[in-house]
Design brief:
The protein is α+β, with helices and mostly antiparallel strands. It has six helices and 18 strands.
């Protein structure tokens, strides 16, 4: 745990008990307008860990932005001890354009730890890792499914890390997936800096889902309570049911192009051979059933009304751990 009495972010010092919004400015818009990324810091006078809640690393994943926004408006980000940093929108460029990528066409979540004189996305990743992450102990990065693919609320963590496993148990999302870190990702670079990061996935791009947001917020409150940081005025719901842990999963892809008629089984347990959707042509000549290749939980569903042959339509668990083990 970092126990310095002062925290310095982007050259600005925040003392114990202080609150401060620091504007991160790496580059202007193409019309010379200034572009600010607010970093909202709340510190208690009592020493404790520093926790980061971030979203919008992909500019079109709005549901994560909504979760961090609610943490701020409900004052959940005011800690009883330690420090809470909120960055509701990391990729402000993509958010303005309602796009996943940076203006240079790069996926920010594939260029970490970045380079000081690299591409725009790479420069941003560099400053995030060098000017903010050195003061962070724990991090929670909120995402949504890409394009029209809806993710059931889930926590992702690397296998074999007991500290992260404990945090995932406490967060207690409906699903917890063991997944390896991707090279160039924010999570991978954070681990190398000894920051304990969990990644939350829920909902789909350019959409706000209130149920998913509530699950994310309640998970955050449970974690903050576990760390002794949650103000007593915020009630915490401790779920009686445990998260379903998944260590193997598979993508089910469309065998033909056409109109996709989803049977709305997201988050449900399905049996092998069960019909999940139907793909039809627009002229009434064929209907092809999409069937589950094995027993498992549907943890992602494609909500696009039109699919092409080879498109991912469902993410299905193959091997689950029934208990937190």
């Amino acid at each position: 745990m970092k126990t310095s009495k002062t925290i310095t972010i982007l050259g600005e010092t925040i003392l114990p008990g202080q609150s401060k919004t620091i504007d991160m400015e790496i580059a202007k818009m193409h019309n010379a307008a200034r572009l600010k990324i607010p970093i909202i810091v709340q510190r208690s006078k009592i020493d404790g860990p520093t926790v980061l809640f971030s979203a919008g690393i992909h500019g079109d994943e709005i549901n994560g932005v909504e979760i961090v926004r609610q943490l701020i408006t409900k004052k959940i980000n005011k800690p009883k001890r330690g420090t809470i940093i909120c960055i509701p929108i990391i990729n402000m460029f993509g958010y303005i354009n309602m796009s996943r990528q940076f203006p240079d066409g790069r996926d920010l979540n594939r260029v970490f730890p970045g380079r000081k004189k690299g591409s725009l996305a790479s420069r941003f990743a560099f400053h995030l890792m060098n000017d903010i992450m050195p003061v962070v102990d724990y991090a929670f990065d909120f995402h949504a499914g890409g394009a029209s693919r809806f993710n059931a609320p889930q926590i992702r963590l690397i296998p074999g890390n007991e500290e992260l496993k404990v945090l995932a148990d406490v967060f207690n999302a409906p699903f917890t997936l063991f997944s390896k870190n991707i090279a160039g990702s924010f999570r991978n670079s954070s681990q190398k800096q000894n920051v304990k990061m969990l990644l939350f996935e829920g909902g789909k791009s350019l959409d706000i889902n209130e149920s998913v947001a509530e699950i994310g917020i309640e998970g955050v409150k449970r974690v903050l309570s576990f760390l002794g940081m949650l103000d007593t005025k915020h009630e915490t719901k401790f779920k009686e049911t445990n998260s379903i842990y998944i260590n193997k999963s598979t993508w089910l892809r469309a065998k033909c192009s056409g109109l996709l008629h989803d049977h709305n089984k997201i988050g449900q347990f399905v049996k092998k051979g069960e019909v999940l959707a139907t793909i039809t042509d627009p002229f009434g000549k064929f209907e092809q059933k999409v069937k589950a290749p094995n027993d498992g939980y549907i943890i992602n569903a494609n909500h696009s009304p039109i699919v092409y042959q080879g498109d991912a339509v469902y993410h299905l668990s193959k091997s689950i751990l029934n208990e937190k083990q």
